[in-house]
Amino acid sequence: MTARVVLGVSGASGALLALAVGEALVKVGAEIDLVVSSAAKLTFATEADAGALERLQGMAAHVHAIGNVGAAIASGSCPVTGMIIAPCSMRSLAAVAHGLDDNLLTRAASVQLKERRPLILMAREAPLTLAHLRNMTAVTEMGGIILPPVPAFYLKPQTAEEIAAQIGARAVDLLRLGPAQAQAWSP
């Protein structure tokens, strides 16, 4: 059976991270349910080339409108393996931490938590306020995984794409869909 994974993209800086996660999911043969926030569309327009968002949408088996809280992925009966939000804005983090299911991205994240499925949030902000830290703690206590997109400098990446690819592979590896895709540290 093919793994079905929800990929949420919020408005934080990091369009390249969303693309890298999408590519890593395709590489492991996952079926992608994509939800992109309005702010994420603006981020793509600012940070990526003209066709980047369309390429990401092309990787998805299902593209859901952010306002469609009646989509299949808004229900725990929808058989998904887990969800990654890449990048995850502090607004989306706060909504997940406090159960504010006001759009499909945050509702789908809440579903993962209530169903005890993996939820990986690529929290993208610096520096962090106490509110951010408390929200990260709350999500972690509920079973979510906070994965800040920290580069693996020990791999000596040469491009931003290499950095994003490693981080994206690391996020997908946390879903345990198969053999690890991220390059391992080796002394």
TrEMBL record:
Residues annotated to bind dimethylallyl phosphate: Y154, R170
Binding site for FMN: G11, A12, S13, S37, S89, M90, R91, S92, R124
Enzyme class, broadest EC rank: transferase
A single MF term (Gene Ontology): carboxy-lyase activity
Keywords: Flavoprotein, FMN, Prenyltransferase, Signal, Transferase
Record bears the keyword Transferase: yes
Annotated Flavoprotein domain residues: 4-166
EC number: 2.5.1.129
Highest rank taxon of the organism: Bacteria
HAMAP family in alphabetical order: ubiX_pad (MF_01984)
Protein name: Flavin prenyltransferase UbiX
Chain's gene name: ubiX
